[in-house]
Amino acid sequence: MPRISAATVADHRANQHAALLEAAREILAAEGVHALTPAAVGARIGLARSSVYRYFASTADILAQLVEDALPRWSARLRDAIAPTAAPDGSLPARIRAYGRAALDFVGSPDYALIPALQAIGLPGECRLRLDELHGELITPLADALREAGADHPALRAELAWGVLRAGARRLIPDAAAHDAEPVDADEIIEITLDVLTRALR
Q: Domains of the chain: which residue ranges?
């Protein structure tokens, strides 16, 4: 039986679960989705495969739990970035730029490995619906800021603006840049994307 390393069994399980999620994130970022299995995740922290199955039923379940862990964190980060107090002058364009920069930071994070992984693995219908719901939570802070500023159709504007960010994010992926006929460095891609974003929402 694994040694209890926390004050209570519940705390121990929570710590174990957090360690497994971090191990899964590291494997996914470094080796890709095909290396992500319950056994590999357990081995990374020295936990028997049979014990790992108490936390994850399958690779798809690992991915679903990583999504549930990552997207709310990024949603909170985006909400903080676009808060009126986040920009030095509190202006909407400055807040939009801060939101856009935080969204583009996602590409350089270990969490970004979830995107190609989710495209490679077929998820059950309810998981796809939950993913859509979580994706909506990423856009909501921008829609809320536009609504507060008196913009018409704020949800539609925010959804269209997310398309600009998604296009910029794709250009930040190393493989995409390598096949680009017009090489642009990462800082320039970010600045161009933020410029287009703020102009689109002006």
A: 1-56, 66-200
